[in-house]
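Aim 2 progress update. The chain analyzed this quarter is reproduced below.
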Amino acid sequence: MEILLLEDDAILAESLKEYLESEGYSVDAVVRGEEVFDLTFEKRYDLYILDINVPDINGIEVLKELKEADDSTPAIYISALVDIKSINSGFDAGAIDYLKKPFDPEELLIRIRHHFADTVKETIKYGELIYNSKNGKVEKAGESFYLAKLQKRIFDRLIVSIGDIVLSDELMGFMEHPSSNALRVTIAKLKKKLDIDIKNIHGQGYTLEAI
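Predicted structure tokens:
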């Protein structure tokens, strides 16, 4: 899932980005309202997470303009504004949820999973593989086996980005002790276990080619 985060608190933005990426999401973070329009012009997102009091144009007006441009991407507000008027304005602008600061990042994750529970594709087919994205189970030619936690996170990221390059830095973000050597070893084990071709794009990252 591709997420665009609008948050002008640098520490909060970085911690949310790291946390969500550790859970398998891809996150672009910006601090100004105008930057949202720049990125959404170039890229499609699955979810917007928006603060309200940000430079240039506030988060309420950002979402209103996106909706007026026929952008139907779901949005969740995260804000220190906890008065009823602000909350009502958030929902009137088209948000699907409103989370009051301060909050536990896990609460945000729970809400994201709740709202997207019906849209997440649980079973993914890739060639002869049948992969269950919920439990990490893989079936191939009648044989069943499970991916370990790190292997599952990496495979999840690759299989939802078939044909695209996933940066090494992003994949290493899933690791407790990240290093390029450890990533290469993990990728090699994954390739052998699933008998698939994960290509190394020198100096950039890895890609799972379309079949």
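Residues 180-194 form the longest helix (15 residues). The domain at 2-115 is CATH 3.40.50.2300 (Rossmann fold). These observations will guide the mutagenesis experiments scheduled for the next reporting period.
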